Amino acid sequence: MKPIDTISDEALRDENLRDQGLGETGTGKTLVIACGALAREVLAVIEMNALEHLTLTCLPAILHNEPTKIPAAVERAVTEHRADYDQILVAYGDCGTGGQLQTLCDRLGVTMIDAPHCYAFFDGMEVFTTRDEPTTFYLTDFLARQFDTFVWKPLGLDRYPDLLPMYFGNYEKLVYLAQTEDEGLTDVAREAAERLRLRFERRFTGYGDLGRFLVDSQRD
Amino acid sequence: MSDEEDDLILSELNDEELTEQMMDDLYDGLKEEIEEAVQILLDRNWTPYDILTKSLVAGMQIVGDDFRDGILFVPEVLRAAQAMKGGMAILKPLLVETGAPKMGKMVIGTVKGDIHDIGKNLVAMMMEGAGFEIIDLGINTEAENYIGTAEREGADIIGMSALLTTTMPYMKTVIESLSEQGLRDKYIVLCGGAPLNEEFGNAIGADAYCDDAAIAVETAKKLVAARHNQV
Question: Which of B101, B164, B178, B221 qualifies as a FRET site for A129, CA 20 to 30 Å off?
Fold first, then answer.
């Protein structure tokens, strides 16, 4: 287990978070099992709020592209780490598991985030639900950085650009929900919108309900 | 594609070679080649129904099997579907004229709040290929639209699709609405979509959850046949 302040840039490289996840980082007795796509954001919340009771480990973010595999991966992680911690938090939304992850967390007695996706809890569930934007495609900081790996290539748009209308013909805009102020990343997200032929909008969200979820764990 | 394939002249192939080639071309998502081959078989006096079932549907069956086995992925399936759609566009008016067998009528749509239609479109196309008449309600479909259209059109099946965890519960609303109107037993209700599973299908009271387009076709055939056999 590594203290958070000793974590290397290499460990937080997007490619590593995507394919391998992140080993246990921190010294707290509450373990956060998160999607690799949230590693930087969880660490930022821990640092900003001095949440020393938390330790973070991440599963490979690429599971995002095969949601049916998420519950089994979370179960393995909970089983592996349960004996070493007082409490386990699962920093995932439903993430396309069709309620399977919630059912699993209920069975294991661990808490997960009550939201359909990471972009919903960054936006804040109340706001996200009120907006009700079915024709909007969302990117977060991580998804903007990893647009090619998580969106463009898996959909085959690098090989078959003619499929674009089949995938995105019913969408109207791309909303980049920004966790950080980063002009370069905003340009990347804007370019993604252009490639998908969607209107672009940027909303700064910060860490939204993810922050509240982690901070509230102090009270449990 | 190899030079040999580049040089292939479809009209010079005999019927058996041509249908084999069509299955390969479908697999490779070659829409223009499929359209050309369909026209060649029509010129050879094949019935539209035979062209549909012996080349296009048979070819898509292979695509579906390889998708299920993890050999093909969504982009390749969509390319194959585009190619099949090209062939279907030629055959569809002719199928009506020549009185191809009718399996039943299905009203299909993506549920309210959801705009994802790739899976729904694949199911609709494969059902059509299997002889079902399809009334496609498109995306963002409300219960009244499913039920009203099914009633008006005398449908046998209501098919609902959803990609989002947040929209899939609406399927239950549609089924409850059917029940409230005393119409639940009148229709076979099928549901499908990436976040769904059999347990969900059972929980909302659907007749079946369909994991993919090929399963939807088999399930629909089975349930329609069972219904016809009821006394």
Answer: B178
